[in-house]
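Hi all, long-time lurker, first post. I run a small reading group and we've been trying to get comfortable going from sequence to structure in the token notation. Rather than ask abstract questions, I figured I'd post a concrete chain and ask someone more experienced to write out its structure so we can walk through it together at our next meeting. Sequence below, copied exactly:
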Amino acid sequence: MSEPDKPDPDLRTRLVDVGVDLVSLEGAGALTLREIARRAGVSHGAPRRYFPTHLELLSAIARRGFAQLGVRVTTTLADGDAHPRAQLTGLGRVYLEFALDNPGMYELMFRHDLLESGHLRLRDTSLPLFGVLVDLVGRVRPDADARAVAGALWANLHGIAQLWGWGSLQLATGTDDFVPLLRTALDAHLGPEGDR
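-- Answer (accepted) --
Happy to help. Here is the structure in token form:
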């Protein structure tokens, strides 16, 4: 632990790393300043040197999640020659897999009521991902308001992720594969695959 009057240049990163680990293990509700500081091995006041508010630390942790999701999306869409509908299917699958593999981080990332998204430029990380969705929807449905359709599709995917994570959809549909639900959501918002 560093002396109180000498800030540790790596402490900011360490606090975010600890928060990422904590949200992965115990969920967003476990992300208190005191617990993050304890696990980082510093006094409970030390995080305030880098994160004046709890919301700023939560936002920094969520930013890491958006970056991880962004890498997955970029990798999935690397084949720019694929049909936009196929790219949307890949994006939807990656989104759902990320949500199911990282439920604590996923919950935190979309709790904008908990995050200071403007101050730490969290929107600079999150909105481009939505922009990718809008662009692909616009290429599949040039006749529609792409932003509105993308918003509705995102809400549908978010609902699938939440209900699947809770086990509700498996019970209701009798399946253990979310892909048919993804395809149905895409058909509902984009029209049947053969038409687009």
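A couple of things your group might point at:
The mean pLDDT is 89.
The longest helix spans residues 54-76.
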